[in-house]
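Sharing in case it's useful to others searching the archive later.

Someone asked me privately for the predicted structure of Efflux RND transporter periplasmic adaptor subunit, so I'm posting the question and my answer publicly. Question first, with the sequence:
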Amino acid sequence: MKKITRIVVTIVVIIASLGAIAKVLSNNKKKSEEQTKIVAQTNATVSVRIDTVSLAIPDLDVVANGNFAPTQELSLAAEKAGRVVKVLVDEGSYVQKGQTVATIRVDQLSVDLTNAEANYQTARTDLERYENAYKTGGVTQQQLDQARLNVENAKAKVDQSRINLGDASIRATISGIVNKRHIEPGSVVSPGTALFDIVNVSTLKLKVTVNEAQIPYLSVGKQVQVKASVFPDKTFSGKINFIAPKADEALNFPVEITITNNTGNQLKAGMYGTAVFDFPNQSAVIMIPRTAFVGSVNSKQVFVSDNGVARLKIVTPGRVLGEKVEVLEGLNEGALVITSGQINLVDGSKVSIIK
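And my answer, the predicted structure tokens:
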């Protein structure tokens, strides 16, 4: 009997405990729902960041990098076959256009010229004899014409022999510095054999690229400041001599700048150079952060905060300058443009500004 009584008491205690637990859970649920309502009411506004629309002078100055290249460079090659007799310049030597830099053995070429000149004199003598004979009827017109043709052929061979003999003296075709010598005295060369690499660094080229925003302010002949990384304290004067009419794959426009080297030709081809494009006298325009646009600049949509309410505006964007975008129409100076949080906004949403 006592055992049954204990069981009943235990069951009653368990039931009472479960009832107490259920009551606590019910109270907690009510409190949670009340807190959720309070939070929902508190978060009825969307937190956003803003930027005040103002007039600003766009910073169009741009720095573009590239490598210096020579305005002229040439791999001088042999035009005739033969053995090199003399090499008259060495690497680092400065040569003038037309200067003899090497000679090839000319013995056979001299003999060829002597024979050609002798044949030419013989042909001239024969022509004089035929002309005299023709006056007395001793030769025909055909024989006289043939004698004249022989003189012309002989003269052409003399000219060719002189050219061949002249080709034996290798002459520089541009002025510059010998960057590399490929031959030594005694070298046997054939037509096309590389002899010298000549580089003219009195003027240099710097090829850079600029984006489309800068192109309207550039023109051929415009002066540009140029710096070399190895001479940080020196500034060189350059001039634009080419602007590509078509953009490259990255939608940038190649620009070529010519730079006059300084005394001593301190700038060398292959050095790293920087062109500084200066665009002064720009007018102040409305500029807003790129992040203000909904999605992208192409959407032409921005939100502004108007007395705690988000208003959707359609604007006309202009130039994109880094992280800033010019606005041509749709915004007035002093407006509060929303720069973050737009994903949660619709026209008319209440907003709270994050300081």
